[in-house]
Amino acid sequence: xxxxxxxxxxxxxxxxxxxxxxxxxxxxxxxxxxxxxxxxxxxxxxxxxxxxxxxxxxxxxxxxxxxxxxxxxxxxxxxxxxxxxxxxxxxxxxxxxxxxxxxxxxxxxxxxxxxxxxxxxxxxxxxxxxxxxxxxxxxxxxxxxxxxxxxxxxxxxxxxxxxxxxxxxxxxxxxxxxxxxxxxxxxxxxxxxxxxxxxxxxxxxxxxxxxxxxxxxxxxxxxxxxxxxxxxxxxxxxxxxxxxxxxxxxxxxxxxxxxxxxxxxxxxxxxxxxxxxxxxxxxxxxxxxxxxxxxxxxxxxxxxxxxxxxxxxxxxxxxxxxxxxxxxxxxxxxxxxxxxxxxxxxxxxxxxxxxxxxxxxxxxxxxxxxxxxxxxxxxxxxxxxxxxxxxxxxxxxxxxxxxxxxxxxxxxxxxxxxxx
Length: 420
Ligand code: GDP
Ligand code: IMO
Ligand code: MG
What we know:
- It contains twelve helices and 20 strands.
- It is an alpha/beta fold.
- It folds into three domains: about 1-100 and about 200-260, Adenylosuccinate Synthetase, Chain A, domain 1 (3-Layer(aba) Sandwich), CATH 3.40.440; about 105-195, Adenylosuccinate Synthetase, subunit A, domain 2, CATH 1.10.300; about 265-420, Adenylosuccinate Synthetase, subunit A, domain 3 (Adenylosuccinate Synthetase, Chain A, domain 3, Alpha-Beta Complex), CATH 3.90.170.
- It has a ten-stranded mixed sheet, sandwiched between helices. Strands 14, 16, 17 and 18 form a four-stranded mixed sheet that branches. A two-stranded antiparallel ribbon has the order 3-4.
- Helix 4 (about 105-120) packs parallel to helix 6.
- The longest helix has 19 residues, at about 155-175.
- The protein is globular and about 65 Å long.
């Protein structure tokens, strides 16, 4: 049996915190896609830590953490992360496993990401520059190197071959930065990676499930950044949706039980691309401040706006969401009125569907307005403690998306979550 937790917006919905909250109910937490572009924030004993590639169950002793084949792995950042979680008492040699089929991000992938973004100029994706796009291109282009290849003598020869190919591509971009320091770090990190638990991930997870173990798949990014269904081309390079769980871990669809979708009580996006409910005014600025909306991976300010039910409905449909967690509800404490986007006006006509190419059409959001609650909610423990106007806001969203909001997160702390 496998449950899924994933983001329903453009990432940073609070997946890390929520996975950490649910982790005690599971035996295995498995990342199925993405890589160090993710930044999942957790509070362990009141102290903040940001995880990029290590699954968010790592701080629970009994929980096994699996990095699945759908992930693209940067050995350098993984080594740093392993050292960081060790300082918090986690022992990755005991409770973390990596699939042999996981593709490696090479230093030249990072260089190619940077070169490609520079060439795009104003049209850039605003990628995290972690080499994600180029690494997935080498996967689908059937050139990439995988974690299992590290155990083979031919690794260095194959690395050199691919590196030469990348050099020709970098030359054609006119990219001439010296990346020898990156390569030095990479080979050091690869030696470290070889010492970790490297397994046949698909057998590993299926054998555990056959023995009755419960798995939670942890998504990275968000549904609107999905390579197929997101706001292409302003997306990431993996399937961030439920479908990605099957190919990213090697599990059959019948094994999937609940799909827990996470949405903020409002909406954010980092990087370029369409964002119909974005606020360019002082309310947007105030949301950024109240929600501390700065990227956990890159530190970039996140673009902020109102919750978008057109996008949320779409994400629930694509993912088969069974329950929703609404995070950062406390951030709206001081905002009134609140707007909820219920439709888009595209070229004057109202629709409740996501247009094929959101960048080419003019989208005007249609809003329903709600009074705010103007009271602090970060101390609420039970549904009865929540203000009536927050309940009204949530009921409206429930009704519009047809999936129940079952939990409301009201602060970054582990225990700041209310079950409805
Ligand atoms: P992720 O990528 O989906 O794991 O989310 P990030 O960690 O990138 O961003 C979420 C941010 O919001 C982090 O700084 C969290 O500590 C914080 N956060 C999560 N849930 C809540 C919440 O309910 N209220 C508040 N105020 N902050 C939250
Ligand atoms: P988590 O897991 C928010 C965005 C980037 C850029 C686009 C492509 O923390 O929610 P990439 O480096 O993947 O090629 O960048 O996707 N992006 C994210 N935005 N949260 C993330 O991860 C993201 N990972 C990538 O900003 O717009
Ligand atoms: Mg994040």
